[in-house]
Design brief:
Blueprint (H helix, E strand, L loop, with lengths): L1 H51 L7 E5 L2 E5 L1 H45 L5
Antiparallel strand pairs: 1-2
Helix pairs in contact: 1-2
């Protein structure tokens, strides 16, 4: 009977270990996505600030692939404001996802500690 318990404990331990590793990988992936969105937001914010400093008669050009197309200043400003708000929403959603995966990782880690420290008799 002790062998069955040891086998069951070993199986649960391996499963929890895999869940913990997977959760930590997901946390790291989401952190990278958050950093990417924050960089995107910062670039859009800096560009919008520069556009705000321009006069309304200034010709502006929007990058499209390898070329630039003339675009009205107001349209450029609104495009960057939209980009900033979209990035903010994405960052908020990614932060929620990060919290979920961090909680899953800490739960798995706690369960692993319980298995390692707990009694082996049932």
């Amino acid at each position: 009977m002790a062998a069955i318990n040891d086998d069951a404990i070993r199986r649960v331990f391996v499963e929890l270990q895999a869940k913990y590793v997977s959760s930590v990988q997901q946390v790291n992936q989401v952190k990278g996505q958050i950093q990417s969105k924050q960089r995107e937001r910062k670039m859009a914010e800096l560009t919008r600030r520069e556009l705000d400093a321009l006069e309304s008669t200034t010709k502006t050009y929007k990058p499209v692939g390898k070329m630039f197309i003339q675009s009205p200043l107001s349209e450029m400003k609104s495009q960057y404001v939209t980009t900033i708000s979209t990035a903010d929403e994405s960052i908020q959603q990614l932060e929620k996802t990060q919290k979920y995966w961090e909680r899953a990782a800490s739960d798995a880690q706690g369960n692993l500690k319980d298995i390692l420290q707990g009694p082996r008799t049932m």
